[in-house]
Amino acid sequence: MQVFQTKSKVIITCNKRLSPYLQDEVTALGYEIVRAFPTGVELNITLTECIKLNLNLRCASQILYCINSFKANTPDELYTALVAMEWEELIDFAGYFSVTSNVDNPTITTPLFANLKVKDAIVDRFREKKNIRPNSGSDANKTVVHLYWKDDEADIFIDTSGETLAKHGYRKIPGKAPMLEALAASTIMATQWDQKSPFVNPMCGSGTLAIEAALIATNRRPGLYRMNYGFMHILGYDEEVFFAERRILKDQVIKNVDLQIIATDISEDAVDVTRRNAKTAGVDTLITFEVCDFEETPVPEGGKGVVVFNPEYGERLGVHSKLELTYKRIGDFMKKNCKGYFGYIFTGNPDLAKKIGLKADKKIEFYNGKLDCRMLEYELYDGTRRPEDERPKAKLD
């Protein structure tokens, strides 16, 4: 199987509602999208081309390269098709592999059973052809085989990413209830921040939003922080391709930038975590850190920037009076201190959002985990809005 040089169906997955931002990333890298759907996009490319995508994408989760498609109504039919595949040309017999799956078939009650069938087929193929077998388990840090099986249609993929791409590798200390890096990057893209004007992040928590803003503005890609991917464990992998792509990442970093990124939090521990994570990412010198109540956050004068809040959501039912006051204070802060800015509040609690006291110009849909969320946009212009203040609207689902 010459997978590195053979074009095939490739599925790039992402969390729900991140697809529009993933599409923008993929097309900006010069790839043609065959199909887009709510949790990803489909391309027709080689496994070698997947290397560049793995290193560059901020919003993706996994990049799956299809190696076979077939009909299967039952687990036995699935096994028969899989055991006939030339796995010995893909996986080192002295290596390690794991299996993941997305299964919707009436004969399967648990995906673990489908995973076991895939594993058995691969192991039995090796025993027949090599009289030996590779090790297998649940770790995703080596070769990962992915099964997509819906009704009688089965696709078998190599997961070229392995560990999820949604985590960008610099956040060694997660902090309390952190926002996933892929989600943070997508929300920043949704603001259409110009990457030059101030980016203000009160209540910064572990700093993911501020750090991702600095990474985007300096063109630092996630591949700079990671040295292991699923594609590295496929037979035929040429490490020079990887290192060549990584050199490109280093060369394209914008080193001399005039940025004002401000991250504040009332918790000294949270600001310390933010600073340490930013240092790991190499952007600590680009961010101003301050321990203070959000109302004391310094907002550069002149407007045209963005201020982004990701406050606690509380319980969806039964709004807490303390959080009601916090959301009202956030609205007051934006009205008084952020004139000329675009303000954003990311929340999973619509009842609390009503306490902000401002009418949102837009409500951009996201999920945080399984929680249905909105990023509320407020144009905080002072006086009469001028025609030149107009700008394109953020892309919605």
Task: Provide the low-confidence segments as ranges.
Answer: 384-389, 391-397
Percent strand equals 15-25%
- How many helical elements? 10
Class from helix and strand fractions: alpha/beta
Helix content class: 25-40%
Rg calculated over all Cα atoms: 23 Å
Average pLDDT number: 93
Oligomer: single chain
Strand order of the largest sheet: 2-3-1-4-8-7-5-6
**What general form does the structure show?**
elongated
What does this entry look like structurally?
With 397 residues, this protein is α/β, with parallel strands linked by helices. The protein is 30% helix and 23% strand. It has helices at residues 19-28, 47-56, 75-83, 111-130, 181-191, 208-217, 239-251, 268-281, 321-337, 350-353, and strands at 8-13, 35-37, 40-45, 62-71, 96-104, 135-137, 143-150, 153-159, 199-201, 261-265, 287-291, 306-309, 342-347, 362-368, 371-379. The strands form two sheets. An eight-stranded mixed β-sheet has the order 2-3-1-4-8-7-5-6. Strand 14 and strand 15 (371-379) form a beta hairpin. The longest helix has 20 residues, at 111-130. Mean pLDDT is 93; it is low at 384-389 and 391-397. This is Class I SAM-dependent RNA methyltransferase. Pfam families: RlmL_1st, THUMP, UPF0020.
